[in-house]
Amino acid sequence: MLATLTNSKAPILALLAVTRSACISPESYESEPVNVETPIGVVTCQLYTRDLVIWDRAIDRPEGMTVSTADAICVNEGQRRSEPEIFQETGTAA
Question: Which is nearest to 74 in space by CA: 83, 84, 86, 61?
């Protein structure tokens, strides 16, 4: 009986997993493009949520810069923006 119930639920669970994964796409987490200044020019980055910096990538880069270098700059920018602020300006002197 248990094997029959388990086997009958497997297709339903698989369908639910596929349905949920179809709803997750990078486009739903995109920020506005961000420009990052570098010594050889501006890299335009497509950043995603704070938890998904691995998706961060360059959508434009200076001539002479490799795609992998530009992507690394964007991942670093995403990580930098996801870090909590250590110091907050209070407006008063101590």
Answer: 61
